[in-house]
C-alpha cells in the first residue's frame, strides 16, 4: 500500500539520523504522543482529528524498507553529513527481521472525533526493543497531521457560524452542508495539500471544486462521491465575449444549462449594473422561468464582501421581489441565490451573516466559497501541534519523562503512558502516568508492525464530527446507491446520522 518510490529512510529531519547514538545506554522503549496544545489565547478550543489513515496507508503500511532504499539513504547521508552517521545496520535488521515492515504501534483517536485542545490525539511506540529509535524517527512525517487536522477544524468552525445563522433565520438546517464551497485548489502549495485539505473540508461539508480532495476521500476513505459542484462561469468565459456583449454571455449560460443550478460570476465590469439591468432587466423573464431545481447563483467577486452582498441582494429584491419565510425573514425567489467567494474567512462570513440578519434576510439566500483561508493561511502553530516523548524503558524499568521549559509553561509536556477518556462529568480528558483504565480509553490501535488495523469510512468520520445543532437525523441520510449512480441529492447529504 505504501508509495513505491517513497523512501521512508529519507522522510525525516536529517538531524534525527544521529539520534540512535544519543539515547541513554540500554534503552528499549520510546513512547511519544501528539497533541494540539492548549493555549489561553487560542482562537479554537477544540479540534477535529482527521488524516492519519491517509498517511499510514500511503507511506507507512506494508514493507517500506528495501535494500535499494537502504543504499540510497546511505549514499545520501554520507554526502549530507560528510561523515558516516547513518544506521545502516539498524535498518537492515528491520528488513531482515520484519521483511521491511516497521515495528511500530500507533494508537489514535477515531477519525472525525472532536477533541478539546490539550489532549493526546495519538501515541507512537516501538514494538521491538532493538528499534527504540524508530518512534521519533517517524515524527517528522506524523506531525504533518497538523495540516488536515487544522483544515477540518477551521471548516467545522465555519459550519458552527453557518448553522447558527441558518437555524435562526430559516428555522432549520436544511442545506447546511452545501453552504461552504471549497475554492482552494489553486491556492495551495501542492497536489497533496489540495488532496489532504480538500478531504478534510469534506468531513464537514459536501460542496467543493477541489477534485483532489474528492479523490482522496474515494481512495483512502471509502466514499464513492464525497463532494459535489455545479456548472459555473469564470471571468475568462464572460470577458471573452467582450464588454459590450456581457448580456449575451449571461444568456448563453442560461441556454447551455437550462436545467440544474448554474453559477455566474457577474462582476467582470459592474456587479450592480449586471444585477439591475441585465439579470433584473433584460434577462429577468429568463431567470423567472427557471424551475426551483434550476437556480441561478449570482457570484460577486470583488469589493467589500459584506457591503457588496447587501447591495446585491437589495437590487435583486427590487427587481425580482421577495417573500417571507416561516420565521419572518425575507427570501428571494427560490430559483435565485448569491454565492460570495471573495474575501471569505471566519470573520467576514460572520459579518456578512449578521448584516443580512439585521436587514431581515434569511441565510437561505446566500452561499459561500472559501479558498486560501480554508486551505492555505494556516501553519503548525495555528493549533500548536506538537509531538513529544513521555515514557521510556531502560534495563527493564519504565520512566515517565517530560519537558517543562521555565520560559513557557504552555510547552510543558505530558508524562508517562497516556490514555484518553470521558470522565464522570462528561468531559474528555487525558490520563497520564499510565494509570488510565484500558476499558475507558478512547485511543484505538490503528497501526501495528506495518499493518493497518482500523479502516475508517468517511461515512463514520462525518458522523463523528457532527455539530450539536444538527438534531434532525433525517437531514443527514442518503442512499449510497444514489451516489454510485451519479445522482447527488439536492438536500442535506452528510453521510450517517447523529
Write the layout of secondary structure elements.
Layout: E1 27-36, E2 46-48, H1 52-60, H2 67-81, H3 88-98, E3 104-108, E4 114-116, E5 120-126, H4 134-137, H5 139-143, H6 146-170, E6 180-182, H7 191-201, H8 211-221, H9 235-239, H10 246-256, E7 262-265, H11 271-282, H12 284-288, E8 296-299, H13 305-320, E9 323-324, E10 330-331, E11 336-340, H14 346-358, E12 366-370, H15 372-375, E13 385-394, E14 397-400, E15 419-422, E16 428-431, E17 444-448, E18 451-452, H16 458-464, H17 480-484
Parallel strand pairs: 6-12, 7-8, 8-11, 11-12
Antiparallel strand pairs: 1-5, 1-13, 2-4, 3-5, 3-17, 9-10, 13-14, 15-16, 17-18
Helix pairs in contact: 2-3, 6-7, 6-14, 7-8, 11-13, 13-14
What does this molecule look like?
The structure is a single chain. With 498 residues, the protein is an alpha+beta fold. It is built from 17 helices and 18 strands. It has helices spanning 52-60, 67-81, 88-98, 134-137, 139-143, 146-170, 191-201, 211-221, 235-239, 246-256, 271-282, 284-288, 305-320, 346-358, 372-375, 458-464, 480-484; strands at 27-36, 46-48, 104-108, 114-116, 120-126, 180-182, 262-265, 296-299, 323-324, 330-331, 336-340, 366-370, 385-394, 397-400, 419-422, 428-431, 444-448, 451-452. Strands 14-13-1-5-3-17-18 form a 7-stranded antiparallel β-sheet. Strands 6-12-11-8-7 form a 5-stranded parallel β-sheet. Helix 6 packs parallel to helix 14. The longest helix has 25 residues, at 146-170. The radius of gyration is 26 Å and the shape is elongated.
Amino acid at each position: 500500500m505504501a508509495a513505491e518510490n517513497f523512501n521512508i529512510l529519507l522522510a525525516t529531519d536529517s538531524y534525527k539520523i544521529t539520534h540512535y547514538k544519543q539515547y541513554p545506554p540500554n534503552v528499549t522503549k520510546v513512547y511519544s504522543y501528539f497533541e494540539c496544545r492548549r493555549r489561553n489565547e487560542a482562537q479554537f478550543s477544540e479540534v477535529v482529528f482527521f488524516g492519519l489513515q491517509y498517511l499510514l496507508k500511503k507511506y507507512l503500511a506494508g514493507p517500506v524498507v528495501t535494500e535499494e532504499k537502504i543504499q540510497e539513504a546511505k549514499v545520501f547521508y554520507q554526502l549530507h553529513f560528510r561523515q558516516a552517521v547513518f544506521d545502516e545496520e539498524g535498518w537492515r535488521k528491520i528488513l531482515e527481521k520484519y521483511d521491511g515492515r516497521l515495528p511500530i504501534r500507533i494508537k489514535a483517536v477515531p477519525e472525525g472525533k472532536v477533541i478539546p485542545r490539550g489532549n493526546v490525539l495519538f501515541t507512537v511506540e516501538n514494538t521491538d526493543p532493538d528499534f527504540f529509535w524508530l518512534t521519533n524517527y517517524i515524527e517528522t512525517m506524523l506531525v504533518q497531521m497538523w495540516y488536515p487536522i487544522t483544515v477540518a477544524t477551521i471548516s467545522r468552525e465555519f459550519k458552527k457560524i453557518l448553522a447558527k445563522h441558518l437555524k435562526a433565520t430559516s428555522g432549520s438546517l436544511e442545506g447546511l452542508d452545501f453552504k461552504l464551497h471549497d475554492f482552494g485548489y489553486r491556492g495551495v502549495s501542492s497536489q497533496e495539500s489540495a488532496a489532504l485539505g480538500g478531504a478534510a473540508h469534506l468531513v464537514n461539508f459536501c460542496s467543493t471544486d477541489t477534485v483532489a480532495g474528492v479523490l482522496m476521500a474515494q481512495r483512502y476513505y471509502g466514499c464513492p462521491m464525497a463532494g459535489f459542484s455545479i456548472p459555473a462561469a469564470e471571468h475568462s468565459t464572460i470577458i471573452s465575449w467582450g464588454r459590450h456583449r456581457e448580456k449575451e454571455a449571461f444568456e448563453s449560460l442560461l441556454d447551455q444549462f437550462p436545467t440544474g443550478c448554474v453559477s455566474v460570476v457577474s462582476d467582470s465590469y459592474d456587479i450592480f449594473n449586471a444585477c439591475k439591468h441585465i439579470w433584473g432587466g433584460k434577462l429577468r423573464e429568463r431567470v423567472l422561468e427557471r424551475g426551483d431545481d434550476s437556480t441561478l447563483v449570482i457570484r460577486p467577486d470583488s469589493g467589500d464582501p459584506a457591503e457588496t452582498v447587501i447591495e446585491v441582494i437589495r437590487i435583486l429584491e427590487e427587481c425580482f421581489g421577495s417573500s417571507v419565510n416561516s420565521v419572518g425573514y425575507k427570501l428571494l425567489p427560490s430559483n435565485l441565490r448569491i454565492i460570495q467567494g471573495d474575501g471569505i474567512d471566519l470573520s467576514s462570513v460572520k459579518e456578512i451573516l449578521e448584516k443580512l440578519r439585521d436587514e431581515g434576510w434569511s441565510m437561505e439566500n446566500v452561499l459561500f466559497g472559501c479558498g486560501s483561508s480554508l486551505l492555505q493561511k494556516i501553519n503548525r502553530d495555528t493549533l500548536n501541534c506538537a509531538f513529544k516523548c513521555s515514557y521510556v524503558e531502560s534495563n527493564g524499568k519504565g520512566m515517565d519523562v517530560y519537558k517543562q521549559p521555565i520560559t513557557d509553561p504552555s510547552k510543558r509536556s505530558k508524562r508517562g503512558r497516556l490514555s484518553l477518556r470521558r470522565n464522570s462529568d462528561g468531559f474528555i480528558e487525558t490520563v497520564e502516568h499510565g494509570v488510565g483504565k484500558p476499558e475507558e480509553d478512547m485511543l484505538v490501535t490503528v497501526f501495528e508492525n506495518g499493518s493497518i488495523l482500523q479502516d475508517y469510512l468517511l461515512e463514520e468520520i462525518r458522523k463523528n464530527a457532527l455539530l450539536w445543532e444538527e438534531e434532525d437525523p433525517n437531514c443527514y441520510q442518503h442512499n449510497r446507491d444514489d451516489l454510485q449512480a451519479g445522482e447527488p441529492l439536492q438536500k442535506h447529504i452528510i453521510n450517517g446520522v447523529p
